[in-house]
Amino acid sequence: MHLATYLGLLEDSEKQLTRAFEHVADKHRDEPDIEQICQKFSAWSRNHHGQILGFVEKYSEEKEDEPDKLKRDLFARNRSGALALLRDLHDLWLLTQQVQLCWTVIRQAALGLRDEELKACATYCAARTKRQTDWLLGRVKQAAPQTLLVAE
Amino acid sequence: MPETRDSITDIWGPRTGFDGQEQWPTRIDEHTTEAPDHWVQSACVLCSNGCGVDIGVKDGRIVGVRGRAVDSVNHGRLGPKGLHGWVANNSPDRLTKPLIRRNGQLEEATWEEAMSLIVQKSKDLIAKHTSSSIGFYTSGQLFLEEYYALAIVGKAGLGTPHMDGNTRLCTATAAAALKASFGSDGQPGSYADLDSTEAILHVGHNIASQQTVLWMRILDRLAGPNPPKLVVIDPRRTYTAERATVHLAPRVGTNIPVMNGLLHLIIEAGHLNHAYIEAHTLGFEELKATVAKWTPDRVERLTGVPADKLRAAADILGTCKTLVSTVLQGVYQSMQATASAVQVNNLHLLRGLLGHDGSGIYQMNGQPTAQNTRECGADGDLPGFRNWGNETHIQELADLWNVHPDQIPHWAPPTHAMQIWRYCETGSIKMLWISGTNPLVSLPDLARARKILAKEDLFVVVQDAFLTETTKYADVVLPAAIWGEKTGCFTNVGRTVHISHRAVNPPGEARSDFDIFVDYSRRMGFRDQHGAPLLTSTWQTTEDAFNAWRECTRGRPCDYTGMSYAKLSEGSGIQWPCNEEFPDGKKHLYEDGVFATATDYCETYGEDLETGAPRSKEEYQAINPDGRAFLHGVDYEPPHEEPDEQYSLWLTTGRVVFHFHTRTKTGRSKALQDAAPDSFVQLAAEDAARYGISEGDMVEVTSRRGRVLEPARVGGIEPGMVFIPFHYGYWDQADRPRAANELTLTEWDPVSKQPHYKYAAVQLRKVHA
């Protein structure tokens, strides 16, 4: 059974997403909407992460080593200029996709296990992850033409 | 020289009490300095009320005003600003010639030179950086025809997404809240609902100071038989709050807990119209679950509103058979603005109090023509309340203007004002054209705003009637004709359209905003897709533009097709929709409980009220609202800046009754200026004692953004909070920092994008002379 392994992957992904939102909020403080919404989303992901920990413990006996190769190297440190914001939002979007897919996989397992608590948790967190994705997509769409065509 | 009443010492004048069985009695208010040789039909532009007014003219000069008795809005009355503000038209310091910056100085120039320079700059920028390097920041003060011209110039001529107005600072949340609940902008009720209503709710709206004439109507109800009960939610003890049956004074930033608490009590008591909820709304169970957490005790702990007062208010709001609610800046410029404003819509939906006599909601406007900025698409909306996400709506605009649909930017919502300023700051907008507004007093965080306008690589055009704090940073200043000097129409917050005729000539070479935008359209050589001049370039008069606008509104909620200049001039105000079906306009929207939420009709597919993320068409279709209204429940989020050890008090900002905006007009009326000559900081007696401050002492108020010096005014406010009016800047007095917005925050509501002026953390210090 690989459930624990995947929970580990999700746990790690939510942790990364928490940090990434925090990082972007901090880095783009001059963009007030980015700073505030990314702080909010960081808090959401931290909350999701906390919720997962209970299940990681519950299913820990079967846990195998975390697959390192699934870790991503996003948010290149030296990004700057007008493109940096768009690229950072782009990477956040990718990370939310990673998290979203993990929740889908976990929810499928929860259904098979008849684990109502895990199912409820996955449903709740997946819905909020989608709201993170939706916001990022809207903001990327807004920023794209100005960044690619006008900004120097 | 008749002055029928002294509106400075007695703001609202004598009472003419009445009740719902009668019409509001007429009282004609007049102030003229000489006997006019003729009167010209108009409406007042010194708040959003839209009072019908006649302009008195003698020898080609404005000599006064009088209220129009026949007008449904004001029944002849005028407030202090209306009675005295017209004096500014005759001010000797009006701008009369274009100015161009040469060697660092603004120097007089010809129109030919000024417009050629703007056109050359535009063409150069488009060639190098695309038209997305050009932005427009307009106003809630121009006329409908001017906004529609500007919208076409921007969206079809240039094709830039960057156009918004100062309406973003004052009424963006009104539009956002109406769209979120009902699918489209548009106030559901009429002022006449106040004549018979059983109860009135004012949330964050000091109506007594903001719309003095509408307040007179309420005062007259209070003075008649069967007066309505009045619930006021405002942290300050305002003139409005003084007359309340129940006044709730919540802490700054806690509108959501108070509103959720009220809704919870009303749901718990079963004061619901179940049939209406079932037939005409979506989302009741979610709303119920969200507000259920807000028990009166919990509300009291967080907001400071005593539980028994909350219950008393819920009892009035839950049992009245008719209700008129109004909402303004205390909600719109505070935390969770759209989410809070929507709770007032929820209240009416839960009780089915909409679409009939005596009930209505006013998501208020602040400015006289803000409604038109929104309707015409001179802000972050598209003309005729069209939906930027709906390809058919874009095609309709393309057909009206005969351009390819992709010429009209619709890849994302039109850029909101604060983002436009941010693009200027980061350098990707390189030309900003400001019309009819003074952002260097009205924007938040003024130090930042000044730095932006001072940027070398930003070409700034300012179109105004006077030199202002903002024109100081302009590269070109265009002298504008104002109200009374040009003909055009505008729409008040109650959907009532007035025509305002030209009464006198503009001073010197000043031109109307309409003439300037049309001239720009012609000089730029904008073409339609068949190579003919673009629509705006073909207009000779504002009536041409009005007739084109009518076509743009056909079949939309704001339908003007039944109106004409002739018809508007015969009567005194017509409400939209006005068309073949409703030739005299319509008193109530949504009488049948069918809202503007059908997928092909709605102005928006909606947004996540917590994050502002836009909803896709597919998701909207899946919900299939099909005419039902949305009930949105949202939970509380604390403000982003709260008092701490270093900055230990809340600052909130607002208006005084005698001034409008940045006082460019009212500050030039001696009567109004003498009535409120200077800014001040208002603080509670407890805080005054703590800081050793007495009435009149000069006080330094500091925030993380800046500092101001203000004379103290003690009392009338809760401890822990201070208030500074936002009107005062530097054009007439520059001896000390005094603009409230030196202190405010650069941040905004995620949905309406309206900045948060109503809270900031500040510190006080008495300054020894």
Summarize the structure in words.
- The complex is a heterodimer of chains A (152) and B (769).
- Chain A is mostly helical.
- Chain A has 4 helices and no strands.
- The model of chain B has no long low-confidence stretch (mean pLDDT 96).
- The longest helix of chain B has 19 residues.
- Chain B starts with 29 loop residues before the first strand and ends with a strand.
- Chain B folds into 4 domains: 90 residues, N-terminal domain of TfIIb (Single Sheet); 276 residues, Rossmann fold, CATH 3.40.50.740; 193 residues, Dimethylsulfoxide Reductase, domain 2 (3-Layer(aba) Sandwich), CATH 3.40.228; 118 residues, Barwin-like endoglucanases.
- Chain B is 31% helix and 16% strand.
- In chain B, a hairpin with a 4-residue loop joins strand 18 and strand 19.
- In chain B, helix 10 packs parallel to helix 16.
- Chains A and B meet through helix 2 and helix 4 of A and helix 19 of B.
Quick take:
By secondary structure, chain A is an all-alpha fold. Chain A has helices at residues 3-27, 32-58, 82-113, 116-150.
Output the keywords:
A: 152 residues, mainly alpha, Ferritin, elongated, B: 769 residues, alpha/beta, N-terminal domain of TfIIb, Rossmann fold, Dimethylsulfoxide Reductase, domain 2, 4 domains, 6-stranded mixed beta barrel, 28 helices, 16% strand
CATH architecture of chain A: Up-down Bundle
Number of domains in the coordinates of chain B?
Answer: 4
- Given the C-alpha coordinates, what overall shape of chain A results? elongated
Reported by name, the CATH topology of chain A is Ferritin
Largest sheet, spatial ordering of strands of chain B? 6-5-17-16-15-7-8
Instruction: Tell me the number of strands of chain B.
Output: 27
In CATH, the homologous superfamily of chain A goes by the name Ferritin, core subunit, four-helix bundle
Which sheet architecture does the biggest sheet of chain A show?
A: none
Please, how many helices of chain A? Answer: 4
Secondary-structure-based class of chain B equals alpha/beta
